[in-house]
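Quarterly update from the structural biology core.
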Amino acid sequence: MRLFLALNPPPELRLRLDELADIAHAHCGGRRVPTANLHLTLAFLGEVEEAKSRVLADWLRGLTITPGEWRLDAWGHFPRPGIVWVGGQQPDPMLTALHQQLWESLEARGVTGRSGHFVPHVTLVRQATQPDSQTLPPPPASRWTYDRIALMQSLTDHRGACYRTLAQSTPASNA
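Predicted structure, tokenized:
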């Protein structure tokens, strides 16, 4: 099964991200990410055996993270895959530290595949042209308050990818 760890936006922010995806798609073309799939990937795990996924789900359910807040105020583009995204103008030290801590814990559990560079972002459009900074309006700043991580499974069929939550960490207020 294809897995990743993610932050899922609260409903009101998901609606705002949906609006930004519409704007990015109108300016850059490509394939718009469905509203239900909007998220921030903290760690892409790739293909994981089902038995290992159950171990990871149990680990995550027992995990509590430090709550944080992320400021989304900039567009970005990854040219090679043609991804238009929204994220922060400044690197976010809390998300970077969370990413690092998660990978250290994952690697201690035998999971490999850490990518070399972490750029916190929400993918809005795939297979898109590079945004023109002259025509793409600056995204209004949004704040994302988070307190839990989800273990997500990516399922693909003829309609594309959809994501299913397998487990979530414990919110700090419930610890």
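The two ends are 29 Å apart (CA to CA).
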